From TrEMBL:
It comes from the Bacteria. Residues 108-266 form the Fido domain. SUPFAM superfamilies: Fic-like. ATP binds at D201, G202, N203, G204, R205, M206, S207, R208, Y239, Y240, N247. It holds the Pfam family Fic. It comes from Sharpea porci. The lineage of its organism: Bacteria, Bacillati, Bacillota, Erysipelotrichia, Erysipelotrichales. Gene3D superfamilies: Fido-like domain, Winged helix-like DNA-binding domain superfamily/Winged helix DNA-binding domain. The active site is at H197. Keywords: ATP-binding, Nucleotide-binding. The keyword rRNA processing does not apply. Signal peptide: none annotated. This is Fic family protein.
Amino acid sequence: MRSFDYSKLANLKIDMEIINYLSKIHEYKGRQDLYIRQKPAELDKLVEIAKIQSTESSNIIEGIFSTSTRIKELVKEKTTPRNRSEKEIVGYKDVLNTIHESHDLIPIEGRYILQLHRDLMKPAGFSYGGSYKNTQNYINETLPDGTQVTRFTPVAPYETASAIDAICESFNREIALEKIDPLILIPCFIIDFLCIHPFNDGNGRMSRLLTLLLLYRSGFVVGKYISIEKQIEKTKEVYYDVLENANQGWHEELNDPTPFIKYMLQMILACYVEFEERVNLNSGISSAKDIVRAYTVNKIGKFTGADVIMNCPTIGRSAILKALKELVEEGSVERYGTGRSTYYVTKR
């Protein structure tokens, strides 16, 4: 089995692109702390939206679906799951809530990772929840003709527990030493976790939950307010490509984590940019109409009522729809379609 020593990352060649990402993210993080102290009421609404989006997107990546309405009700615990997919969605929601509420009390250790996996699988009743894999798994790709090709063979079952313990120990040691930026360490930990592929099922979802946990524990809590999983889902083809590149030569310790590091930094930075846009959109503006107007003025292309509701969380649905109607009547926004097909365009 390969060794795990994250101290070697101190020698990783970091180009100007990575340096710029790191600099910008740390700058945004400093302002994030100020927003959290000054605008708690506005941020509570962002948390609610992010939970729904994170739960929906992370499951979509794995081919687990339900309607947006059902997912919203499941996350808000206003209904019970109807089928296996919805039970798996509830499992993600449960672990996400645990991480949001108790991340500072969840050490990065194998036994806690097992407990999170147990809770992820519990609603669906899977017996293997909370246990490492007991059979060899493979990372396969389905070709256009339907045949499957094995792209990567993860760690064998008998090596899994010790491999997870090793990445946790090395990660914790380097975090404590503070010689390597956590934003470099975290993507490398996730690459190793996915290459170990420790569970019979749920590895992808666990990797995204662990990403949030690791970021939160290092003070980067933007994923609590803006869904990182949503950013990944929107770019999932790139996500899979950089992961596949990152596992080339992994067993021989020859793999290059740089493309995945850059990808994750891009996702985190995009979340910080969106975070400030949403908070600033609702700052210093009194009426619902002015808030909606501020959103529409900066919006290029089509948008729906649901888009406005999601991006203006400090005002209610009825007030937003009334404001949109008023903007249409005054001619600053144009409405097209009817019913569920309705969309809007800002008049330039």
